[in-house]
Amino acid sequence: METTLLGIDDIMKLLPHRYPFLLVDRIVEIEERKRIVGLKNVTINEPFFQGHFPAHPIMPGVLIIEAMAQVGGVMLLSTMSDTTNKVVYFMSLDNVKFRKPVRPGDQLRFELDMMHIRGSVCKMHGVALVDGEIVAEADMAAMVRDR
Questions:
Q1: What is the Cα–Cα distance from 140 to 40, expressed in whole angstroms?
Q2: Which regions in the chain score pLDDT beneath 70?
Q3: How many Å apart are CA 5 and CA 15, to the nearest integer?
Q4: How far is 21 from 39, CA to CA, in rounded Å?
Q5: Do 61 and 100 meet the contact criterion of CB atoms below 8 Å apart?
Q6: Which residues contact 33 (CB under 8 A, 6 or more apart)?
Q7: Which residue, among 81, 68, 83, 45, has the nearest Cα to 140 in the 3D structure?
Q8: Residue 116 has what pLDDT?
Q9: Does residue 73 contact residue 6 with C-beta atoms inside 8 Å?
Q10: Which residues does the annotation mark as catalytic?
Q11: How many H-runs (helices) and E-runs (strands) does the chain carry?
Q12: Buried b (16+ CB within 10 A) or exposed e, 66-103
């Protein structure tokens, strides 16, 4: 089992998201302004499984990318001393690929690398893995702004 660097309480201090849209459970690795690794435990209790799809539950791909973006947001905000009035906006998604379905019982591992940062804008590359296999990936651009 990996060591938790940031638990759910710490994440909620950084991100404005709340149920049912907070999609990251813990952060297990941070290398400031370089890399972050976060986890999401996918359970049958997720509200989106009621309609996506009955009798064949699959996590929507857009929510996998949203969870990845939230982990990226934690990477950006975790270096700031006061985040109470800050929010991360994602500006673009490129090269998004979905490789395999994500089902209840899976644990998503998000590994993001910061590719470039200038001022309040950065570019990241992220992958989502289940059991060591890539299930999704994307290049993202984001910026930190005042709320």
A1: 19
A2: 1
A3: 16
A4: 15
A5: no
A6: 75, 79, 114, 117
A7: 68
A8: 94
A9: no
A10: 52
A11: 2, 6
A12: ebbbbbbbbbbbbeeeebeebebebeeeeeeebeeebe
> Taking a C-beta distance cutoff of 8 angstroms, is the pair 24, 42 a contact?
no
Structure tokens at 121: 């804008």
Tell me the two tokens of residue 51.
């309609």
The number of residues in the chain equals 147
Query: What is the C-alpha to C-alpha distance for residues 31 and 74, in angstroms, rounded to an integer?
Result: 12
Give the C-alpha separation, 94 to 138, whole Å. 6
pLDDT at 120: 85
Alpha-carbon span 118 to 79, nearest angstrom: 15
Residue in the block written with tokens 């490789």 = 99
- Can you tell me the distance from the alpha carbon of 98 to that of 147, in angstroms, rounded to the nearest whole number? 32
